[in-house]
Structures are given as C-alpha cells and as structure tokens.
Q: What sequence folds into this?
C-alpha cells in the first residue's frame, strides 16, 4: 500500500509534537518542578531547563512557582488593650523553599491552598500581637512612640516559627501592615470630633482676630495720645518762650503803670465788644451822661412818638 | 433499503441515547463544563439519528409498496391499469414526500434553534459551574474513554456502511456518533489537563464546543435558505436537510475535500469536482496547508521589540544569555515551545493610585464627592494640651480621617529581577505604597500635612517606597508620589472650609484695625503739628505784639504826658474812641434812671439779634 509523502510528513510532525509533549517537560527560571512516579515524589528540579519524563500516568510533573507570593490578608477588627478597636490588614510575602515538604501538604503544591492555610496562621499571629499594643503604637504624632515595625516584626517571627515547626516548606519573606482603619460606627464619632476640633479653631481664630484688632486700635490710640501730649508740651514750651520774650516789653510798660493799665483795659474792652455783645447802659455811663443834660430835646422826641 | 441498514440506524439511536445519558451522569459526577457541552452535542446526534431512523422506515415502506405494485402488475399482466394511477395508489410514497416537504424543514428549523441556543446560553453560564472534582476525575476519564470508544467504533462502522452501500440516511447519525466520540476524548483530555494543573482548560474546551454548536447552527440555517434557491434537477439526488456537513467533517476530517466537492456539485447542479482547478486543489491542498503551517511557524521565529520595551527570552525555560533580557530591535527565536518570549514595557512610566480613584470632572472640591472615598487614619495634635489636668493618665491620641488619592509613578529598571523575583510585582508594589502611605499618615499631623508638610511628605513617601521596593527586590524605580489630592472627608469638608473663612475674617478684622491705626496716627501727627504751629504762632505773636506794644507805649507816653491822669483828655479820647469803634455792631440797651421823667428809646425797629442768627444752622445743601 503506497503511503502519501504528505501523510508521512504530517504524521512525523504530529509524532514529534506528541512525543515532545509526552516525554519532555521544561522548567522556567521562576518555577520548580516536582516529578511524581506513580504518585510518589520522585525528583525535584529547581534549575531552569528541559527535563525528561515518562508519560502520564507513570510520571506526573507539577510545576510550582518559586517566586515570592503575595498574600493579602483580611481587613479585620481587633480589640486593643486600651479598649480601642482597630481594623488592620497585613500583606505577606512567602516563597516555596522546600518543594518536597510543600508539595504533599498543599494539594499537589497548590498555591491557593497554601494561601488559605497561611492566611489562618497570619491572622492568628496578627490578632495576638496587635492585641497587645495600645492604640498609640499604631497612630501617634510622635513617630518615636509608634511601633509599626516592631509589630510587623513580632507577627513575622511568630508566623516564621509556626511555618518552620510545622515544616510547610515555606519561607516567610516579610509581613507588612498594609492598612489600618476604624470601624464604621467609630468613623462617625471621629467626624464629630473633627467637627468640634474645627469649631475650636474657628473660635480661636476669630478671637485672635478680635484680640489683634483691639491691640492695634489701642496702640494707635495710645500713639495718637502720646503724639498729642508731646505736641501740647512742646506748644506750652514754645508759648512760655514767647511769654518770656514778652516780659521784656513789660519793663517799658512799667515806666508808666497808669497808662499801661489803661491801655490794657482798653484792649480788654475792645475784645469784649468785638462780637455779639449786648450793652446795657445806663445814663451814668460815659458819654451817656450827656443825655440827662438835654432833657428838653428828649421830651420833644418822646412826645412825637406818643400817638395821643 | 436493506434490513441491516435499518437495524444499524436503530442501534445508532440506542447507543446515542445511552451515550447522552452516560455523559450527563459523568458531567454531574465530575462537574465538568466541557462534559456538559459534550452531552448537548450528543443529544443533538440522538435527535438527528431518531429522525433519520424514521426517514428510513418511510423509505422502506415506499420500497415495499413499489415491489408489491410491481408484483401485482405482473400477476394482472397489464401495466396500463396503474399507469395513470393517482397519488392515493402510492400512500407510502406520498407519506415520504410529505415527510421531506414538511416535517424535515420544520425539524431542521427546530434543530437550528436548539443549536443556536446551545451556543449562546451556556457561554455565560459555563464559568459559573463548580470546578472539576479531582477526586472523581479518574473514574470519569475511564467512563468517558469507554463511551468514546464505543461511539467511535460504531460511528466508523456506520459511516463505512453508508459510504459503501450508498445509504445516505446512515450518514447523519454516523457523523454525530463520531463527533460524540471525539467530544468524549476531548473531555477526557480536558480532565487530564485540569489534573495537571491547567484549570482553565475545562472552560476553554467547553467554549470551543459552544463554538462548534454555533457553527452547526449557522450551517443549518444556511442549508435551509439555500434549499429554497437550489437548482433542482429532475431525478437528481436530494440532500438531507438535517444532515450537517460540518459535523460530518469534524467526524471525518479526511473527507473535507469530498464533502466540499459534493456540496458544490449539489448547489450548482453540475460536476464542479471534475474541473482542472478542483483536481489541482485536491492534489495540492495538503501541501499548501502544510506550507502555510510552516510559514506560520517560521514567522513566529522573528519578532520585533519596540523602543521602550524589553523582553525575556527563554530556551526550554532557561533565560538566554546572562539574564534573558533583550532590548529593542529585530530578534530571532526558535519556534514555540522551544523558545518563549514575554514582552514588558520597561521604559514606559506606569502608575497606580493609592486610595480613591478620582472620577472625571472639571472641578475637584472637598465638599463635593468626586470619588469613592478611601479614608486613612491620621494622627492629630491635642487641640489644647494645657487644658489636660496635670498628672492625668496618658490617653489615646486623637485621630482624624483623611481622604487620600495618591498617584504613584514607577518604571521597571531591572527586568530580570522584576519578572523572576516576585510572582505579582505590580500588586506587591501597590501593597508597599499603601503601607508607606498608611504608616506615614499615622504619624503625621493633619494640619501640618495639609499645609506646609505636603512637599516633605511626598519626598518622604517616595524615599520610603523606594527603600521598601529595593529591600523586596522589585527592580523598579519610584519616580513620583503626588499628594495633591488629600483632603478631609466630604462629610467634614465644609467645617474645614469654615476654618479658612474664619481665618479670612480674622485677617479682615486685623486689616480694619490697621486701617484705623494708620488713620489715627496720621490724625495725631497732623494735630500735634497743628498744635505746635499754633504755639509757635502764638509765641511769634506774643513777641512781635509785645515789641509793637512797647513801641506804641513809648509813643503813647508822650501823648499821655501831654494830658496825664485819670479823666484826662488822652484817656477820655482813647476810651470813647474804643467804645464807638468797637460797639458799632453791638445791640445796646440804654436804661434811664428811675427818677428820670422821660424814657428815651433808641432804634425800636424789630431786629433779630445777630448773635441768634449766628446760632442758626445753615440749610442743608440740595
């Protein structure tokens, strides 16, 4: 029976492909391969590259990711020794360091299975450690008082010890606190406190404004008063100097005191009469005495004014 | 119609029924999505085989009827008696014709609806199925292998019988038997792949079977439409409407060319398969396809990396060169699965946001919600620490909440470290960033952070993130941490704005006071100047007046000495002169003595006192 060359070529390609798939496996740099022979771990290949195997079901090849796995814990409520409540979540980095120990313990090396188991351990350690620290170890304006790193370290040590003791084949690389928060019911109280705090600041600022304004006004008034007082003092001094100069002329006046007195009286009279003065004069006032000496003329005048 | 053929048709129906039930049970037993779709396809096969079997019965009856009539006509010796016989003379033939005219298209239309539903409905529902129960996988694989083997053997036998004996009614059932067999093998392989760790294979295979059902539906619909426009040749063979060429192809891949030729011959009404082009195609198609495949494989050996990107090249999983990193340019690699590459955007600035993802909008105001808020705890200073009683027990520090949306930008600097050290470096970097932000805020003072501390906080956060990233061997560089969008939560944002308002009021009051101070000081300066000037004027006046008076006095003395003494002429002159000059504008009342006989009134006209007029206020300006 004559075979078509095409059939032979295709068959050869298919045999090659299936042969490779059945008998060869490859391990990437990020992986580690666990080879089982009839269900028992037969070999572990940690170096990257190809490997030979017997086809299923004789040998099975399980490839495990040997890079650092990132496990995110739950955001969980914890009671603190100072009666505070805190929500806390951590993230964990771990890697498979012993595939032979890891493989049978986690459903043929299942990372999700390992995550589940590890999450329980981390959660327990986290609650235990965090429950021993007061609130100020987590939140404080004084950075020296905060113990974030200590808490993370304590959780890490506990989990590392458990993982080592139980021989999980895992190395815990780090445990970090990812987030801290407060329960929803407490959040409203925090908002109330924040509101009160701001009200305090508003009052404080407004009072500061009043205080400052009053200070400025008072200082201005004081400065003005001082300036005026200084000016008055200066004015008095100047006037005094003027009067002192004026005294020299008094010596001349003293040569004829009667005349000087008379002049001063006239000056005073002049000043008195200057504006809005009303004079009530009787006939004895000079020169009104002259009115009495001319009575006949006065009588005529009176008669003329009388209507009868 | 041979009796044997009908028996095979019945056997096909029974086996397909058993396989459908068996697949259904195995699907439920092992919870496999691919198995569910295999059950559906086998179920279609059962329906088609049943209709096909019914069709066989009608044809058999027609043949018997024809034979009986031929016998009868021979015994009567006259054919003319039946030559013009009506339709009532051939009830079996009429039944078959009625079946092909009405039942067959209706069934085909129904089959189309079922195939379309089987393609559409499970597409969304299959991912919701529980994963394969690995504990039951071995038994399920064994049973499926058995079903597949039985279906394959019977399918091959039926298809061979149909081809050799020209029993076209066996073809549809045979094709579905083979399709069912391949479906069983595929489901078996799928379960094996899931056991090997390729969990998604189940869903992928199930969806491939969905696509098969969808293609079969399209083909069925096209068959129905083309049947209307088909060129009909008297005495020509009619095609079974419910027979799927696609299923036949999948069941017998080697028959692809033959089926295509038959389809074209049937559709165009002449032997397309006898043309030179068809002959050439028949011979060369295999090589052409192989050449295509080879070209495809060869093309996958060359790849181009764009500027700004890098790739990891692995041979049998081992990085090539020192760390497997290759840069921009044209590169060669061996075909999959020997060499594998993975591309990364190393130069590209990548970013993520810690906290809330801001929504699109022109304005971002604290008091207006612009994102689903994510609040972080922030420490607060005691508002009034002096108010605490001395020696009071240390209490928990007051806390505030801050809505945060911090963009973090980074670049991959060491690709080998980035790709090979951590399984999910992006997620790890986000965790680091969130931790840094949470840690920093927990020790920062809210007011300080929102005012002067932003720039310092951004620098501190970037340094901390970089330190952590280096410690965890991420191979990334933190380029930027932005603290623009941190503000009090929306619920309390208004009161924070009021604080700003209070500050403005304070400034306003201070400015008003400063304005008062400026005005008061200026007035005081002016007033003091005025007073000094007045004093100087007074001084000057006093000095000059006194000098003038002295000179005047000296002269007056001469006049006075001429008529000295009180009541002297000088004094009288001076007195009267002063009186008349200065009392001109004054009102004067002269009171006569009580013993005087006449009263002299001078100027009795009404006259408003000038001093009163002076007191009146001026009329307001209009």
A:
């Amino acid at each position: 029976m004559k075979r078509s060359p095409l059939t032979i070529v295709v068959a050869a390609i298919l045999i090659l492909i299936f042969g490779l798939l059945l008998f060869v496996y490859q391990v990437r740099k990020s992986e580690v391969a666990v080879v089982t022979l009839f269900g028992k771990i037969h070999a572990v290949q940690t170096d990257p590259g190809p490997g030979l195997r017997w086809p299923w079901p004789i040998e099975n090849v399980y490839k495990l990711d040997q890079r650092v796995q990132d496990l995110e814990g739950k955001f969980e409520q914890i009671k603190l020794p100072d009666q505070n409540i805190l929500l806390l979540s951590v993230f964990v980095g771990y890697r498979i360091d012993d595939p032979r120990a890891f493989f049978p313990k986690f459903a043929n090396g299942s990372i999700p299975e390992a995550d589940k188991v590890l999450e329980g351990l981390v959660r327990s350690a986290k609650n235990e450690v965090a429950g021993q620290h007061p609130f100020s170890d987590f939140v404080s304006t004084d950075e020296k008082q905060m113990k974030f790193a200590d808490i993370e370290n304590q959780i890490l040590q506990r989990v590392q010890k458990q993982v080592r003791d139980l021989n999980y084949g895992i190395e815990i690389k780090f445990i970090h606190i990812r987030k801290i928060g407060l329960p929803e019911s407490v959040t409203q109280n925090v908002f109330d406190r924040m509101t009160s705090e701001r009200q305090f600041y508003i009052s404080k600022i407004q009072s500061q404004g009043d205080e400052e304004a009053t200070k400025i006004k008072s200082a201005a008034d004081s400065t003005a008063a001082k300036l005026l007082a200084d000016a008055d003092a200066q004015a008095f001094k100047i006037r005094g100097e003027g009067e002192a100069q004026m005294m020299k002329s008094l010596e001349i006046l003293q040569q004829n005191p009667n005349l000087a007195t008379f002049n001063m009286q006239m000056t005073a009279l002049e000043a008195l009469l200057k504006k809005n003065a009303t004079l009530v004069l009787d006939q004895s006032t000079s020169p009104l005495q002259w009115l009495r000496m001319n009575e006949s003329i006065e009588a005529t005048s009176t008669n003329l004014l009388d209507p009868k | 119609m041979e009796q044997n053929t009908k028996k095979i048709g019945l056997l096909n129906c029974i086996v397909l029924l058993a396989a459908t039930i068996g697949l259904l049970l195995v699907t439920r037993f092992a919870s496999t999505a691919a198995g569910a779709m295999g059950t559906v396809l086998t179920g279609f096969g059962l329906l088609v085989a049943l209709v096909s079997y019914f069709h066989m019965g009608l044809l058999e009856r027609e043949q018997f009827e024809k034979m009986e009539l031929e016998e009868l006509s021979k015994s009567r010796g006259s054919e003319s008696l039946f030559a013009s016989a009506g339709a009532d003379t051939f009830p079996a033939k009429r039944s078959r014709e009625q079946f092909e005219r009405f039942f067959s298209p209706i069934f085909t239309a129904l089959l189309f609806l079922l195939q379309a539903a089987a393609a559409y409905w499970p597409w969304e529902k299959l991912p919701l199925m529980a994963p394969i129960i690995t504990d039951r996988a071995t038994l399920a694989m064994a049973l499926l292998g058995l079903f597949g083997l039985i279906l394959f053997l019977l399918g091959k036998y039926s298809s061979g019988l149909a081809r050799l004996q020209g029993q076209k009614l066996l073809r549809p059932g045979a094709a579905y038997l083979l399709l069912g067999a391949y479906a069983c093998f595929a489901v078996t392989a799928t379960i094996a792949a899931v056991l090997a760790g390729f969990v998604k294979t189940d869903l992928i295979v199930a969806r491939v079977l969905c696509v098969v059902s969808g293609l079969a539906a399209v083909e069925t619909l096209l068959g129905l439409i083309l049947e209307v426009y088909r060129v009909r040749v008297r005495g020509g063979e009619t095609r079974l409407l419910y027979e799927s060429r696609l299923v036949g192809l999948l069941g017998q891949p080697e028959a692809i060319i033959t089926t295509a030729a038959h389809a074209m011959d049937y559709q165009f009404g002449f032997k397309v398969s006898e043309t030179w082009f068809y002959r050439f195609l028949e011979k060369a198609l295999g090589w052409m396809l192989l050449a295509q495949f080879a070209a495809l494989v060869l093309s996958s050996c060359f790849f181009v990396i764009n500027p700004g990107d890098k790739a990891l090249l692995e041979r049998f999983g081992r990085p090539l060169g020192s760390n497997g990193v290759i840069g921009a340019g044209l590169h060669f690699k061996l075909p999959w699965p020997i060499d594998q590459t993975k591309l990364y955007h190393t130069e590209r600035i990548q970013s993520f946001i810690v906290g809330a993802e801001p929504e699109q909008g022109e304005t971002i105001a604290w008091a207006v919600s612009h994102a689903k808020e994510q609040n972080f705890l922030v420490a607060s200073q005691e508002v009034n620490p002096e108010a605490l009683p001395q020696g009071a027990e240390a209490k928990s520090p007051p806390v505030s909440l801050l809505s945060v949306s911090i963009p973090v930008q980074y670049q991959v600097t060491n690709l080998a470290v980035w790709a090979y050290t951590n399984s999910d470096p992006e997620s790890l970097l986000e965790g680091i960033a969130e931790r840094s932000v949470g840690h920093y805020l927990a020790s920062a003072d809210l007011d300080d952070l929102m005012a002067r501390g932003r720039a310092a906080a951004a620098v501190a956060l970037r340094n901390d993130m970089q330190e952590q990233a280096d410690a965890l061997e991420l191979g990334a560089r933190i380029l930027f941490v932005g603290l623009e969008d941190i503000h009090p939560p929306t619920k309390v944002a208004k009161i924070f704005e009021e604080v700003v308002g209070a500050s403005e009021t304070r400034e306003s009051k201070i400015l008003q006071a400063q304005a008062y101070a400026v005005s008061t000081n200026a007035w005081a300066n002016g007033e003091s100047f005025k007073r000094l000037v007045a004093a100087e004027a007074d001084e000057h006046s006093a000095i000059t007046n006194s000098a003038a008076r002295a000179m005047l006095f000296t002269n007056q003395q001469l006049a006075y000495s001429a008529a000295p003494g009180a009541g002297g002429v000088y004094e009288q002159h001076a007195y009267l002169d002063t009186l008349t000059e200065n009392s001109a504008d004054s009102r004067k009342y002269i009171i006569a003595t009580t013993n005087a006989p006449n009263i002299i009134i001078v100027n009795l006209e009404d006259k408003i006192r000038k001093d009163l007029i002076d007191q009146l206020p001026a009329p307001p300006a209009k």
Confidence is low (pLDDT under 50) at residues 296-308 of chain A. Strands of chain A lie at 24-27, 31-37, 40-45, 49-52, 59-65, 69-72, 76-79, 85-96, 170-181, 278-282. Residues 86 and 182 of chain A are 5 Å apart (CA to CA). Chain A touches chain B through 134 residues (CB under 8 Å).
